[in-house]
Amino acid sequence: MKSIALLGEFTPTFKPHIATNAAIEHSRNMFGISVEGVWVSTQDIDPSLFSRFSGIWVAPGSPYKNMDKTLWAIQYARENNIPCFGTCGGFQHIILEYARNVLGFKDAQHAEYDPYSSDLFISALTCSLAGREMNLNFIEGSQVAKIYGENSAIEEYYCNFGVNPEKIELLKSGSLQITGSDVEGEIRVIELPNHPFFLATLFVPQARSTASRPHPLVSAFLTAVANTNRA
Question: How far is 28 from 22, CA to CA, in rounded Å?
Fold first, then answer.
């Protein structure tokens, strides 16, 4: 059986973490996908990570204990075609890694770690999304739209941070694609083309997964991991 590293600080009472474990089970049981999830604290990330795991899910629940190690893992997965999924805090750190290592903004920062940084790519949301459900629109033909099988959805959020509006045009200048937004046009889904699976959502799709209806994004991620050539 292949394994994915669930990168984050597991808290057994935190609903998104409970939902992450459950969503993996839902997809495994419904579709027979032989992939398991193992929680790995970000402070325990080391170069052996990718000899032990076939993919990474950068989980909700930031700030992480070690942001730099988390960004290293994301970069390695991006550059080596290893399936990488980010939800909530994971989405935010995938944006940060991309800003630093692809767009060249080495001081790109997250307001949760340094609210006074002069180069915030992730900033506090004007209105918290924690506990809210919102409508989403996907770009036709995008990977996320193909996974859902439609161009819209309703999803649940647990976050207080998102993409700094002042950095949106910079993010659009590279290969990372913005493929999902809310009704106000705010960025909610990003993906990297020509990669086995490199996709992140500001919402928490696992929160809406059930045993009878596994979430399509979780199932697609696990399938991508199962289909890799990695041990």
Answer: 10
Check residue 127 and give its pLDDT.
61
Q: Residue 91 corresponds to which amino acid?
A: F
120-124 and 152-156 beta bridge pairing: unpaired
Q: Residue 85 is part of a domain; what is its CATH number? A: 3.40.50.880
User: pLDDT tens digits, residue range 118-133?
Assistant: 899 999 876 666 667 8
Q: Which domain holds residue 203?
A: 2-226
Does 103 reside within a domain? yes
d(CA 26, CA 53): 20
How many independent structural domains does the chain possess? 1
Question: Rounded to two decimals, what is the model's pTM?
Answer: 0.95
Cβ atoms of 96 and 108 within 8 Å: the answer is yes
Residue 106 belongs to some domain of the structure = yes
82 within some domain = yes
How confident is the model over 163-186, as pLDDT tens digits?
998 999 999 888 999 999 987 778
Residue 231 lies in a domain: no
User: Tokens in use for 211?
Assistant: 């045993």
Gyration radius of the chain's alpha carbons: 16
Give CA separation, 144 vs 26, 148, 228, in Å. 19, 6, 19
User: Which CA distances in Å does 214 have to 53, 91, 174?
Assistant: 22, 21, 32
Report d(CA 98, CA 26) in Å as an integer: 31
Start-to-end CA distance of the chain, whole Å, equals 9
